[in-house]
Amino acid sequence: MMGAILQLDGVTVRYGRGASAVTAVAGVDLELPPGQIVGLVGESGCGKSTLARAICGLQPLAGGRITLAGEPIPPLGHRRRPARLLRIQMVFQNPYASLNPRRRVGDQIEDGRRVATRPVGSVSDLLTEVEMDASAADRFPHEFSGGQRQRIAIARAMAAAPDILIGDEPIASLDASLQSRIASLMRDVALRNDASLLFISHDLAVVREIADTILVMHTGHIVERGPAERVWAAPQDPYTRRLLAAIPIADGLGRIPG
Amino acid sequence: MTGLVISDLRLRIGQADILNGVSLGILGGEITGLAGESGSGKTMTGLVLCGLQPAGAVVTGRVEFTDSDRSIPNLLALQPREFNRLRGRRIAMVAQDPVASLHPMLTIGTQLTDHVRHHLRLSKQQATARAVELLERVQVPTPETALRRYPHQFSGGQLQRIAIAIAIACEPAVLIADEPTTALDVTVQAGILRLLRELRDDLGLAIILISHDLGVMSAIADTIAVMRYGTVIEQGSRQQVIQQPQTEYARELIAALPQVPPPGITTDAGGQPHPDAQPHPDAQPHPGVQPHPGNHPHSTRTGA
């Protein structure tokens, strides 16, 4: 089965009202076709996490619309979410906070499987897919390192057989040496399962390694978008250039970037 | 010579060996990088140097401290009262997240003057004058106004500058910076790194920079010590460790970073990336699993 398209048209999100209102997301257009990896890059406060929350229906819109397979995404209320929206799954920044510390890993992944709208592999298949041992199912989150916990969070998200996988800074709390690896893992897992991936991060160097398309967000606006290699090699917007210039390179030469 | 000499530092909590014999020299006027992944013991090393190891930890080894007017043969042998007179005054620390390390309900002025008045016995006016100087030193705009503000009124980068000002307020000899830029945006990071380098040069501080990011190390560390399983497995000058790592593990750490530098960034004068900057051809991909503290496969003491 082919995945569905996520479409954002002129999405605007405001916090507060009246004179003190802050426009966190200002008219963002975005299309996420099946099997595509889109990287959304920007610094703290640029609105990238707000956008992710809006896509999940966690944040009411002040303008524009978000549709999944042509149908709008209503804000999440107290009622159960319609089954079609379970096809959007999210991996959060901090796996220490997003996994339930009191339940076994296997049970938490099983929760995801229960809401899947199409057949998915067993818990041990899912754990194998994220390069974990099947015996992890019987253990608790605190028994794992940060990188392993993030793998578990990815397995949990994939258990619901999503069409759209969203990673909101999924590598920010990990060691530098793990970041590329977990990012590539998310890409591979999403592609193998016909899902598209919206990968949100402040780290252009890592996003470039996995994304087909890169969007650069600044003060609520998308200031640059294009194929990953083009944005990396020939950035058009001054803000993108500044971001690129600030990346410290491990070359041993003692140069402060920027 | 100002600095610290750490010899065979060991720390054990219950059955878990956290540090397995760390030996390291830290010199004034230099930035010593402690690199390694979570669980390697780099933060715990920093905490022991401040005498802030967790309750119940058994610490052995020796840490010799020397500054311009005294030499202490072993910090680990100090009574808590004696350590209290050093901590914050001669040995100071900057933590990773300034939003967490600063008190949300106290003004910047209070947080910048309290320990100065205690340690240096300055009057309120003297301490406030000193606080203004310090904020100027770390380039926080409008210092007089800033003193009356609360942490939530500043950005993350400004807060980290303020945290650094608090740390250097009593003119310490040693500054321990534990992941000082990890919680900051990449465009703000460069400013903090530049500030640390200035402090090294102007104040002759011995700075211990703890970071998992070898890009950050490469920018400002003079020497780098790579830690794993609670010991230093490799140390040398910045160029040596990053361009010609001797151990397999250091090679893996470097190989695991995104490879291609951004355009416009050249690593030598010829415009080509430096040949030695490439990862070693034998480097294996990083296993992607961090060790747990106290569960070190080659630990000398676990299971004994």
Automatic annotation (TrEMBL), chain B:
Instruction: Using the UniProt annotation, give all residue ranges assigned to the region (Disordered).
Output: 260-304
The cross-references to PROSITE patterns, in alphabetical order and at most eight, read: ABC_TRANSPORTER_1 (PS00211), ABC_TRANSPORTER_2 (PS50893)
The yes or no answer to whether the keyword Nucleotide-binding is present is yes
Q: Where is the composition biased (Pro residues)?
A: 276-290
One MF annotation (Gene Ontology) recorded for this entry: ATP binding
InterPro entries, sorted: AAA+_ATPase (IPR003593), ABC_Ni/Peptide_Import (IPR050388), ABC_transporter-like_ATP-bd (IPR003439), ABC_transporter-like_CS (IPR017871), P-loop_NTPase (IPR027417)
The top of its lineage is: Bacteria, Bacillati, Actinomycetota, Actinomycetes, Micrococcales
This protein's name? Dipeptide/oligopeptide/nickel ABC transporter ATP-binding protein
Keyword presence, Lyase: no
Query: What does the sequence similarity comment in the record state about its family?
Result: Belongs to the ABC transporter superfamily.
UniProt GO cellular component terms: plasma membrane
